[in-house]
Amino acid sequence: MSSQYELRAEHQPGEMARNGHHWHVVRHGSLLGLCGRLTSPVGELQEILLIDDVRMEGRCPSCWAAYDEVTTPV
Q: What pLDDT does 18 receive?
């Protein structure tokens, strides 16, 4: 089953892919993070299923909070 969300890395110039500055949560096929930041179309993508594998310091806090809001049952 495919999710409507995915992870997209925000890189600083010269960084290797796995060392993304921050990981943003985006809607599938979108470049706009849930935080409102526009990410690069060439940024690395990962399935949202890997969300728990992202280090705390590598997470966009606003994206994680927004994702928790949209996925937490009422």
A: 55
pLDDT, tens digit, 9 for 90 and up, residues 53-62: 999 999 999 9
pTM: 0.84
Burial class (CB in 10 A: 0-12, 13-18, 19+), 66: middle
Strand order in the sheet with 22-27: 22-27, 5-10, 45-47
Alpha carbon of 29 to those of 12, 13, 56, 63, 66: distances in Å? Answer: 22, 23, 24, 16, 18
Task: Please name every residue paired with 23 in a beta bridge, in sequence order, or none if there are none.
Answer: 9, 59
Residue 68 and residue 54: Cα distance in Å, rounded?
Answer: 15
